[in-house]
Each structure stands twice: as C-alpha cells, then as structure tokens.
From TrEMBL:
Taxonomic lineage from the root: Bacteria, Bacillati, Actinomycetota, Actinomycetes, Kitasatosporales
Matching InterPro entries: Thiolase, Thiolase-like, Thiolase_C_2
Name used for this protein in its record: Acetyl-CoA acetyltransferase
Record domain Thiolase C-terminal: where: 243-391
Pfam families from the UniProt entry: Thiolase_C_1
Length: 392
C-alpha cells in the first residue's frame, strides 16, 4: 500500500553563537565546542532535550561521536561530512533536508579549534599541504603547497581578465574596514592598498595581508523544524535554499582556475530558494585569500565572470556598500580558526536579526536585510556549499 507523502517542514535557524575567539590559550577544542553549543542553545531559548541531531567534523578519532559524548548528547541523526571550509554549509544543507523530511527535529552544528594556540605552544606545526597520499602524491614532491594553489589560480585570473593586484588588495582593505566595526575581530586597525602591496611576499602574487589570519575559536548553529519556532527566544531565520558541489583535488583535474565550485552550488541554492543574486542584501563568503572573495562574487552571480576585480574595488563590499560582504571582517581580519564556514552562518543570521551592532547592514529604506547568502569553500576550490537565508 502506498503511504501518503508527508508535507516537507520548513526549517529555521533558531540559535547561533561563537565561542571565545581570537587568542584563546587556555581552552581545549572540546571546551570551545561545548561553550559554543551552550551559547547557541541559550540564544534559541530551547533546551538540550530537543536536540536529536548533531553534526561536527575535524575533532576526535570517531568524529563527531566523541564530541557528542563530550556534550552529553546521544543523537538519532548524525553527520560528519568533512569537505574543508565548506563543511558547515554542506552540513546545514543535509540537516535542513533531514528536518524537512522528519528524520530529525533539531540539529546542532558545532565547531571548535585551537589552531593558533597549538602552534604557539609547539603542539603542532603549520601545514604546507594536506598530505602526500592518493592523487596528491603527484603534486606534493614539487612543493605545490596549499597557498601556492590559490596563488596560481589568482595569477590565472589576472592574466585571463586583467584583474590587478590592487583590486585584490582592495578586498583585504574592505575586510579590515568592516572588522573595525566588530569588537570581537582580532585585527581592527585600518590598512591601505599600499600596506597590502608592501607586505612580505608569501606566494606570488599574495603578500601577507592577502592571506587569512590564524585564530582560535568556534561556533554553533541550531536548526529546528517550524513547529519549534514558537518556543524560541529569537525570531527565526529560514533556510530558503541550499546547494553543494565538489570539483577536484588535483590541479590537473581543475578545468578552469578562474571558476570555483560556487558556480554550481550557488546556482542550485538560488534556484531552490526562488530568489536572484541581485535580491541578496548581505553576503558572507569564505575568504582564506583575497582571490576567494573575488571569484566567489563572480560565481554566485553578483557580477559577470572576469568583472570581480572592478566590482570589489569600488567599496561595494563595505558594511555601507552596495553588497556588504564579510561584515564581521571575515577570515582576513576577524577570525579564522581553521575551518571558518560555520562562522559565516552565524554572521549571516545576526545580520538578518539585526544583532550586528555597529556593523549592522541596513537596506536603502532603513529596514533590516531580508536575504543573506553564506557560501563556504573547501580545499583549494575543491568544494563549495551555499545557503540562502531569509528573515520573516
């Protein structure tokens, strides 16, 4: 006998939080997970008993089972997808699908890292590559480090479209200007294009300020079915559409260095949300390097391919600009604790709720933003997850 189909439930983000971030020398990654989780639950007004889904990656031998145990949770839905910085947008997509289908009611996404503190204390060293096994064995012996891959892609874009180093530098300058409005940002002093260009060379064409900072910190996001919204402390931010895509690991399998997987994940997310890029009020984009911001703007459809440099250099990315991007200062100036994707969702939700303080974005009519997009990137443009969120 055919069973009647259940109507898909709407899904909302009902709680968000950061753990302590920046310079956190005395906490463990587990403690940062717990701190962020407690704060997100408090933000939602719900109790831990409603949480029946859990998603985490990057910590523990049996991630996320160890973290769930540490938090005292025994979920009946779990996700440990790990695709780099886009992990959290992809997990949010999976969680939203599970809740909509009735496989879970409330899913907690949590992340925490002491990447900075571990290096300072000598517990680990900086990573030059992700390893030398599998397909990567054909690149690592030649010194093809993570940052070199991004640098090569940026140089390709410069050659192909005439993008200038000054245009790339302007992305860092605007991120720092936004960070100046964020009391929790690690670096808030203003910088100029000349400051970026004159810094020490890391990987041509990237100088130091083209590259993200290294911080400690974590975040948590709680998603819940629509029937839980009435019990929440804060207004809901709805998941309107999501998309995910993986592209390559080896550079030889990347068809075009100037196109990121956001070109696919973004198109899917906007189509499923039923909105157009030009309707978006604020964007949170993964920015481990300035080029990531520029090419993601193009691939999400905010400007045409090859026009990202001209789009970014005119101050459009500032809190008061045409398309405010990385309003907390991004990974270039605010926080970057390893995998930053979950922090993008936190900032997007805070902007839609009107909780961003001095960096709060307003529409031209003075109203709060109605639509936001969070797009994470993993590896060296290997994966992308895009989430479109709406208020009201």
């Amino acid at each position: 006998m055919t069973q009647p189909q259940r109507k898909a439930r709407k899904v909302a983000v009902v709680g968000v939080s950061l753990s302590d971030c920046g310079r956190v020398d005395e906490a463990t990654p587990y403690a940062l997970h717990a701190q962020a989780a407690r704060r997100a639950l408090a933000d939602s007004g719900l109790t831990r008993e409603v949480v029946d889904g859990f998603a985490s990656a990057g910590l523990g031998t049996l991630a996320p089972i160890e973290v769930a145990e540490y938090l005292g949770l025994q979920p009946t839905w779990v996700d440990s997808t790990s695709v780099g910085g886009s992990t959290w947008e992809v997990m949010a997509a999976h969680a939203a699908d599970a809740i909509a289908a009735g496989h879970a009611n409330a899913v907690l996404l949590v992340y925490g890292s002491t990447a900075r503190a571990d290096i300072k204390a000598g517990r680990r060293t900086g990573n030059l590559s992700f390893g030398a096994r599998g397909p990567l064995q054909f690149e690592v012996p030649y010194g093809h480090s993570l940052i070199a891959k991004y640098a090569m892609a940026a140089r390709r874009h410069m050659i192909e479209y005439g993008t200038t180093i000054e245009q790339l530098a302007s992305v860092a300058v605007q991120a720092r200007a936004n960070a100046a409005l964020n009391p929790d940002a690690m670096f808030r002093d203003p910088i100029t294009v000349e400051d970026v260009l004159s810094g020490p060379m890391i990987a041509d064409p990237f100088t130091k300020l083209h590259c993200c900072i290294r911080s400690d910190g974590g975040a948590a996001v709680l998603l819940a079915a629509e029937e839980y919204v009435r019990d929440c402390r804060t207004p809901p931010v709805w998941i309107l559409g999501t998309g995910e895509h993986v592209s390559h690991t080896t550079m030889s399998e990347w068809p075009d260095f100037t196109v990121s997987p956001a070109a696919v994940s973004g198109k899917l997310a906007f189509a499923r949300a039923g909105v157009r890029p030009e309707e978006v009020d604020v964007a949170q984009l993964y920015d481990a390097f300035t080029y990531m911001t520029l090419v993601t703007l193009e691939d999400l459809g905010f400007c045409k391919k090859g026009e990202g440099g001209a789009f970014a250099e005119k101050g459009r990315l500032l809190v008061g600009g045409d398309l405010p991007v990385n309003t907390d200062g991004g990974g270039l100036s605010a926080q970057h604790p390893g995998m930053r994707g979950l922090l993008l969702l936190v900032e997007a939700v805070r902007q839609l709720r009107g909780e961003a303080g001095a960096r709060q974005v307003r529409r031209r009519d003075g109203e709060l933003p109605r639509l936001a997009v969070a797009s994470g990137t993993g590896g060296w443009f290997c994966s992308s997850g895009t989430v479109v969120l709406g208020r009201g």
